[in-house]
Amino acid sequence: MLELLEISGSLNMIGYGLATIGPGIGVAMVFSSVINGTARQPEARGAMMGTAWIGFAIVEALAIIGIALAFVLK
Fold first, then answer.
1. Residue 19's pLDDT is what?
2. Considering just the CA atoms, what is the radius of gyration of the chain in Å?
3. Does residue 4 fall inside a structural domain?
4. Which UniProt keywords apply (predicted)?
5. Listed residue (17, 20, 11) closest to 74, CA to CA
6. What's the CATH code of the domain at 52?
7. 1 in a domain, yes or no?
8. In a 3-state reduction of DSSP, which class is residue 59?
9. Which among 54, 62, 57, 73 is positioned nearest to 22, based on CA atoms?
C-alpha cells in the first residue's frame, strides 16, 4: 500500500512563485512598448528609454514587495 507523502513548508512561497508571472509580464510589456515605439519613431528612443527604466523599476519594486510579504507572512 502506498503511504501518503508528508509535504511541509510554506504555501506563501508557492503563491509568490505564481505571483512572479505578473512582474514578468509587466517587464515584457514595458520593453516591448519601447521596441515598438523605437521602430515607429527612432529619434525618440532616448526619451522612451528613460520612461522605460522608471516603469521597469516600479514593476520590479512590486515584485520585491511581494517576496518580502511572502517571508513576513511565513
1. 83
2. 19
3. no
4. ATP synthesis, Cell membrane, CF(0), Hydrogen ion transport, Ion transport, Lipid-binding, Membrane, Transmembrane, Transmembrane helix, Transport
5. 11
6. 1.20.20.10
7. no
8. helix
9. 62
- Residue type at 46? G
Amino acid type, 38: T
Q: How far is CA 60 from the centre of its chain?
A: 6
> Which single residue is written with the C-alpha cell 512590486?
62
Cβ burial, residue 32 (10 Å; 0-12/13-18/19+): exposed
Total domains present in the chain: 1
Residue 28 sits in which domain range?
15-72
Give the pLDDT confidence score for residue 1 in this predicted structure: 53
Residue type, 26: G
